[in-house]
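Have a close read of this protein, sequence plus structure tokens, and explain what the tokens say about the fold. Thanks in advance:
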Amino acid sequence: MGSQFDPAHVVDAIEQSGIRGITGRHAADNRPKDIPAGWSEEMMRHHFFDDAETALAALEDCVHRFNGRADGRIRCWVNIEGKEPCSLELHVGARALAERLGSARPIIWRPLSKRPAYARKTTAPGRYQEFGRRVGWEGTW
């Protein structure tokens, strides 16, 4: 379970309950022009960073603070929000950061052919594959 801002409360709950868990904070740096329905300006400030460098620093801090807590039962990953809310610099930087820290960097993508039919209808063919090629992720999603 992650957090849009600070997963400290999640880490404390995992630690106290005795379970294993993976957490992390989310980061994005491509703020939309208009605030999405249901979001507040405060949520936008917690979620979107001014640039990739600032986002990556926050992600690194989060991994250093929480990864390995509770005698190793807690893992902290480098989490970014996905394709549109993140710049290419943040995608590439998150991958490098995760590799450097020995962490994971989850992203939920599937090739178009493996998506449910309803998702295939709403996504331009090749869009995800082209983005993956640009950032060097062939075969990893």
